[in-house]
């Protein structure tokens, strides 16, 4: 099965899509990678979903990526004597270390690290940003605030601190356990929530130990300040617009999305745009026009993947949401403006043989109107370098390693095929031409361009480029 688009689709699994038959329908509709949200998924359910996805993969004969999204630290307030309290704008409200139920004047805050990190003038956002208070006085036992935007606040609501770098680890004990379980199962990507600093990603990498790709979710303003360093340590990036939209002024989120997407493309890291892309399809069979434009913008921007959350996890129309996203992406990529935008954003190759070969392959394929680019890749680096070029022809990534094919399922434009490693140069050319034809990318008499590393099987050593004709016998 080949997709008629280059951008990939990530679909979140949940109550509406947890059975094998439902997962297979989502794959057929267009999902390339399945996300499992560990905030709502016990490890036993993770194991069952992993097994179901691998069964679908075997039935469909195409590598499928699996993304385990860790919950991350959750900052929450305590409880109220009456289950809730009304905060009036302009009033004083206090967060303190007293575990007694709160009222309209105070509430328990069970996070001593916040008292140590907050400064006067810092904003504190409550209940997904619906209420905003500003710190006036800070001590180790309490934070006195002034209510900017009031409203009703109930037990254990979430707390966001957009102005404060809180010295808490990005991985809780639950996250560490979930990470180890997911990596041992063989998931392909592990997403790290609430990244604040490069050190958060470095810690996750040590725990993963190369068993999966590490995806940093950018949802904290502090992460934007060290985005370059976070990109350097990450294998992929997610623009997590949910919390990013809470902690930043809403009007700045589109520009931040573009900033993150372009930075990831320059760094050659796959980038996923996520959250509320087709939100209305949780309950409606068709999206709003604004949602369609939102999805289209991410595709025009050159994102590697676009993601569905509740739409496919708990919505009434999971496979229809995937199919709708697929149609939007196909329509955008057929637009003449799309190719001109993608080309204008292309980066100069780095001074390495692998980058030079990939850039040359893209240029030659454009000039000679070749049928496809075929990459032999073991570690996946050759495929990712080719994907970064955003060529105008299909990219076929051939690998003998299932884990590589599954991980590359996230990357823009890569059609991954599992095949034995080539025995020699002649076998490599014959294999590339045969697979290009059998997968429906080339007809007899057409030409393909082949990139690989010699000696064959040498990781990250892309140094060969060859043009070959596709014969009638494959």
**Strand-pairing-aware structural class:** alpha/beta
Count of β-strands: 21
Q: Kindly report how far apart the N and C termini lie.
A: 18 Å
Strand order of the largest sheet: 1-2-3-12-13-14-15-16
Contiguous helical run count: 17
CATH level 1 name of the largest domain: Alpha Beta
Instruction: Characterize the largest beta sheet: strand count, sense, and whether it forms a barrel.
Output: 8 strands, parallel, barrel
Kindly provide the radius of gyration, computed on alpha-carbon positions and rounded to a whole number of angstroms: 24 Å
The number of distinct structural domains comes to 3
Envelope shape: elongated
**Can you give the mean pLDDT?**
95
Helix content: 25-40%
The CATH topology of the largest domain is given as TIM Barrel
Sheet-strand content, in percent, reads 15-25%
CATH architecture of the largest domain: Alpha-Beta Barrel
* Oligomeric form: single chain
User: Which segments are poorly predicted (pLDDT under 50) over 5 or more consecutive residues?
Assistant: none
CATH superfamily of the largest domain: Phosphoenolpyruvate-binding domains
